[in-house]
Amino acid sequence: MVMRNIRHIRRAWMRLGLTWTWMSLFGSNLAFATEGNTNIVPGIGLLRGIGIASALGGIIVLILVHFVYRKRLSRGTYHWLLLLGLFVLPITATLSSMATVMEGTKRVEACASCHVMDPFVNDLKNPASPTLAARHYKNKWIAKDQCYGCHISYGATGTIAGKRDGFRHWLYYVTGTYSDPIKFVGSYSNSNCLYCHEGTRIWERIKSHNALRADLEQDLVACIRCHGPPHPLPQERTGSAMK
Amino acid sequence: MFTDFMLHSNRCFIQNLFPYLMRCVHSLLFALQPGSKRKKIELPGNGFPYKEGEVMADKDEKSEGLTRRDALRVLGVSAGIAMIAPLSGCGGVWERQPVIPVDAWHKGVCRFCGTGCGMMIGVTDNKVVDVKGDEYAHNRGRLCIKGLMNREILYGEGRALYPMIRKNGKLERATWDEAMDLVATRFREAIDEYGPDSVAFYGSGQLYTQESYTANKLFKAGIGTNNMDGNPRLCMASAVTGYTSSFGKDEPAGCYEDMDYSDCFFITGSNTLECHPILWERMLDRKRSHPETRIIVVDPRRTFTAMHADLHLPIYPGTDVALYNSMMNEFIENGFIDRDMVENYLSFQEGKQKRTFEDLKKHVAQYPAERAAKICGISPRDIQEAAFTFASSKATLSIWTMGLNQQVQGTASNRGVVAMHLLTGHFGRPGATPFSLTGQPNACGGVRDTGSLSHALPGGRLVANATHREEMEDLWKVPRGRIGPKPGYHAVALFEAIAKGDVKCCLVMCTNPGQTLPNSNLYRKGMEKGFMVVADSFHPTETTIFADVVLPAAMWVEKEGVKGNAERRYHLYPKVVDPPGEARSDLDILVDFAERIGHGDLITAKTPKDVWDEWRHISAHSKYNFEGITYERLQKERGILWPCPTEDHPGTKRRYIPGEDPMAHGGGRFDFYGKPDGRATVWLDSHEEPVDPYTDEFPLIFNTGRILEHWHTMTITGPVPELQSIHPDYLEIHPHDAHHFNIREGDQVIVRSRRGEVELRAKLSLVVRPGMVFATMHSAKHLVNQVTHDVYDPFSKQPAYKRCAVSVRKKTV
User: Fold this and answer.
1) B192: left (phi over 0), alpha (psi -120 to 50) or beta
2) Catalytic residue (choose from B406, B409, B440, B786)
3) A205 within some domain
4) Which of A192-196, B78-82, B522-526 holds the top average pLDDT?
5) Greater model confidence, B629 or B32
6) Cis previous bond, A181, omega within 30
């Protein structure tokens, strides 16, 4: 009877421990969800929390299940917990963290996290700057995720080229091999501007726009060639851009 | 499987590796399926989830199996290769590629307006394929649509490719030798028989400085005639006389950078948004970063520029003098006069009489707001508000172009604006300056500064001044007396003389007077009479059709040279491609011409660099000194602002300030070194009634101007494919007037004046005021200059395009 009681007690402890772990993880999710940062993108904190919780939870579950409680679990329970720890939680963690990255990188804070971007973010938030970025930000023409509003090719539903560019940027940045001052390579896609601007009454009545419509749609002429500069020019950048 | 790799050398690295990797992965996936061989892992106890000896499936076929170890190896290597491979140079995979690939970018400048935007010119295979703004130039990488279309202009239809001579009434192809021989012979005959004043040169503010300078020297100091004028006479002459009568020297005192510091922009007679769009953007930038900046626009039309104004004064054309006198009256009455300026730095003049400040007070008191408002057709309140805003802001910058210049009272209007700045002290500080904008890219550097006008000599000198003539004769190393003492024919008079037969031969370069002269019917008939030699890049134009000899000229970056934009910036245009056909640069044509008529020993500088060096050394003997702007500096930098006397001088942003302007001396606030007493002059001018009176027969005011998308007479922008859909031959008419004359939108109408008529398409618009109609000067199919008046400003001889009296009626089919 003492042996049976000990097994019951240990199972009780285990259940208590697991419950406590889950509740604390769930609680920290809630904490993330209500964090001040997340009122811009309410989902990011939650996604991040789920990802972290799943990752940690998965590790904990696997360690506990395989090394500590294996002998005390029935085969069915063991298999279900392995399914949880090897597949469900890792997949959840992967999806959540991917979503966090894909969606989180749309935020201005994400761009600002690399210091080579400091001059651009300083300019964006400078109400006295006449660059396109600053004006769109100052006048709230783009409600949130202002960088993404024009550089629209990233995100989970973005282009392959966007992901390649992101990878390339990351690679050059961490290896310190980017050229300074940084420049936009290739032709800027006008669809980023035309997405909002084309078809409006003001845009359509400008003779130059109508004359260049075909060129603009094929990116033979960039909107920013007349209406730029979108960001401070190399000689105008302030803030740290040092490697 | 690992051994079936085959290298295709005509494919890039990725294209070689990727299929192989795909095959590896494919095999991998296949191998990892259940049923492939793998090692059994024995675990202690009952931990192993399967019964001993059991495999998940009992397939036993021989597959191209990989062990897990091999799988990991392959995956690891592939990942590594995938990381490094993109750096191999397969550009399209790794980086965004530009839509228009360019071999090399060259630093240059836009072909069109007086803003003079820096641009990078992309060349591939000896062809200009793309242009983009130069980020390091004053325009900060911006271009307008005409700037962007620079990449198309060299390749338009209608390029003149070979010389032509008129034989039996038709233009036929000839060789350069034939053409130039004929030109030289006819000119020589005319000079020998009728004297040097029987030949003339009509140049352009779009020729390079070296070309205008050479033509000026050849005609004035070689041939010995002062019949050497140009199309800036039709454009900027009143600005020249406005500045020279106020300061003694031509050209604005400020620079574009002043727009970054102004608190009030007073834009009068300028549709800046359409005609100097990049400067307008710069002014808008100032307003965007400082929203309290005020923009006042004085323009008869409610242009796109006026739509952005905080205050718009839609005055009648030709009433500027009344407005500025009234504003000066407001300044005096409200205590906005800078006493220091008045007492120490200004003098006053009316006509030939010296005056005092008290005289000015009495003079402008004749223009109280109520009276001026009636003359101008606006409200007195607006005049008072404009005056208050102008005077009370921290720094006021005035901008004007053709609205002021192309009037009978052009000079008076120009110096009225200058006077407002001088009296209120809005001068010489960052953001405070009267800035006349130049229309053409090289009217300043090429024609005004080199004195390539019929009354002028280089460096601000005058033909009528004996000392000046002697100075130039010495500098040009010609005998005293070679330069004639009488000013030659100005533009309108020149073509009048050709029509009369007083001028037998005329060389026209880089301009289209057949379309741009006012009252053009008269002068077009005249051009049939004279021996016209026309050098242009396009044929046919409204001038080449009258030519006896057509010479094909190279254009823009097909030839090298220097131009000077509106802010006194001399900048270099490089040669990056070869001209088409047999076209040659205008400098080559002039040098060739000089040699053939016997002045080859005078025109010793035959290349752009040599001419530049000669001219800059001569400039050191004047207040337009730019000797320090060497060719090397021009090649390296994005232009330099003169005065620039030495090679280490950075250029001058604001003139007349001792300490900043190297030509200014003394310790005072200003040194107006252009005037003998060192004081700038405020002129007392009176409003004059219009010359072409309105009657019942001609009740409407006819105004002319431009649109953003086209340049001048459309010879260059007309063939551009993107601009084909823009038709500028319309007549803007207010609905009130349209109703009165029974005209509907889109009707063909006849606009008639005392001189001629033109057919246009009616466009009902609220842009014009009732009583006023507007047409553009661009179209060759509908020549609005048949209607305009060739009356001109008495001081500058600039014609008044901006108003005449017309009638409008619907064309009866």
Assistant:
1) alpha
2) B440
3) yes
4) B522-526
5) B629
6) yes
Same domain, A83 and A118: no
Tell whether the torsion through CA atoms of B656, B662, B664 and B666 is positive or negative.
positive
Tokens of B462: 């005058």
**Alpha-carbon gap: A74 to the closest alpha carbon of chain B (Å):** 11
| Residue A39, pLDDT above cutoff 60 | no
Helix and strand numbers, DSSP H then E, in chain B: 26, 29
- ipTM score above 0.95: no
Distance CA B215, CA B223 (A): 10
Contact B94 A226 (CB under 8 A): no
pLDDT given for residue A93 in this prediction: 84
Burial class of residue B8, CB neighbours in 10 A (0-12, 13-18, 19+):
exposed
Report the number of distinct structural domains present in chain A.
2
CB atoms within 10 A of CB A198: 16
Q: Do A183 and A98 belong together in one domain?
A: no
Instruction: Tokens 């920290």: give the residue.
Output: A28
Contact A208 B709 (CB under 8 A): yes
B366: confidence class by pLDDT, cuts 50, 70, 90: very high
Å between A228 CA and nearest CA of chain B: 6
Reading the block at residue B251, the tokens are 């050209």
Q: DSSP of B679-695, one letter per residue?
A: -EEEE-------SS---
Looking at the domain assignment, is residue A109 inside a domain? no
Mean pLDDT is lowest, of B43-47, B148-152, B461-465, B718-722, for: B43-47
pTM of the predicted model as reported, rounded to 2 decimal places? 0.85
- Tell me how far apart the alpha carbons of residues B251 and B231 are, in angstroms, rounded to a whole number: 17
| Inter-chain residue contact A130 with B288, CB threshold 8 Å | yes
Separation between Cα atoms, residue B740 and residue B527, nearest integer Å: 39
- What residues in A contact B274, CB-CB < 8 Å? none
Do A232 and A118 lie in one domain? The reply is: yes
Distance, in Å, from the CA atom of B790 to the CA atom of B499, rounded to the nearest integer, reads: 14
pLDDT of A172 above 70: yes
Binned at pLDDT 50, 70 and 90, residue B48 comes out as very low
Asked if A120 and A233 sit in the same domain, the reply is yes
Of A45-59, B117-131, B615-629, B770-784, least confident by mean pLDDT is A45-59
Residues of A in contact with B284 (CB under 8 A): 130
Residue appearing with tokens 């002429």:
A221
User: Do A11 and A83 sit in the same domain of this protein?
Assistant: yes
Judgement on whether residues A118 and A188 belong to the same structural domain of the protein: yes
| Bridge partners (DSSP) listed for residue B677 | none
The domain in which residue A226 lies consists of 114-242
Which amino acid, residue B109?
V
Do the beta carbons of residue B702 and residue B695 sit within 8 Å? no
Looking at the fold, whether A136 and A74 belong to one and the same domain comes out as no
Q: Do B494 and B200 touch, CB atoms closer than 8 A?
A: yes
Q: Tell me the per-residue pLDDT of B188-198, one tens digit each, with 9 for 90 and over.
A: 999 999 999 99
* Average pLDDT of the segment spanning A212-240: 89
Partnered with residue B53 across adjacent β-strands are none
Single residue among A47, A73, A104 that ends a domain in this structure: A104
Q: How far apart are CA B503 and CA B784, in angstroms?
A: 26
Burial category of B142 from C-beta neighbours within 10 Å (exposed 0-12, middle 13-18, buried 19 and up): buried
Q: What is the mean pLDDT of residues B469-484?
A: 96
Instruction: Label each residue of B554-569 as H, E or C.
Output: CCHHHCCEEEECCCCE
Task: Residue B305: count other Cβ atoms within 10 Å of its Cβ.
Answer: 24
Average pLDDT, integer, range B722-736:
95
Residues A82 and A146 both lie in one domain: no
Q: Identify whether A150 is part of a domain.
A: yes
Where among A71, A104, A137 does a domain terminate?
A104
**AA letter at B420:** M
Q: Identify whether A35 is part of a domain.
A: yes
- Which structure tokens are listed for B502? 């007083």
Active site residue B264: no
